[in-house]
Design a protein that fits this description.
By secondary structure, the protein is α/β, with parallel strands linked by helices. The chain is built from five helices and five strands. A five-stranded mixed β-sheet has the order 3-2-1-5-4. The longest helix is centred in the first third of the chain and has 14 residues, at 22-35.
């Protein structure tokens, strides 16, 4: 018998341009999970930056998936700069951190698991959105 609590905490971090449709976010999520053979049921939560708190696409995605959506400040996300696979100067200019999706995923995975997190899926870009998946055991 397997211990369910031993399953890693998987969290999806999302960044998007203003007005990004939920269909774009969902397509990116489905594509990334399929490519890495991860089931949607394994995802514990979604994360983004607090600047996206009012973003309809993100809110709708969380509702569709019935997952919590947690936001972090750019200061909180900046702490993960050293773990990012990609540093975006544009993201830094706009948000104060070099990567929203990766940083948010790492921050939330660590918070939920109370353990160090690592990126399982580094930054994926698609249309107006970015996605990353972090895991903490």
């Amino acid at each position: 018998m397997t211990d369910v609590s031993a399953a890693p905490t998987l969290v999806v971090g999302l960044g998007c341009q203003r007005g990004c449709p939920v269909s774009t976010l969902r397509a990116l999520l489905d594509q990334a999970l399929q490519a890495h053979q991860i089931g949607l049921h394994e995802i514990k939560a979604l994360a983004s930056i607090d600047l996206k708190r009012e973003e309809p696409g993100l809110i709708e995605l969380a509702e569709q998936l019935a997952l919590p959506l947690v936001y972090f400040s750019s200061e909180q996300l900046a702490a993960y700069q050293g773990q990012l696979s990609h540093h975006s100067d544009i993201a830094f200019e706009r948000t104060g951190c070099y990567g929203v999706a990766e940083s948010a995923a790492l921050a939330l995975a660590e918070q939920l698991a109370r353990a160090p997190a690592k990126l399982l899926i580094p930054r994926q870009k698609y249309a107006q959105a970015t996605l990353a998946l972090a895991s903490a055991a």
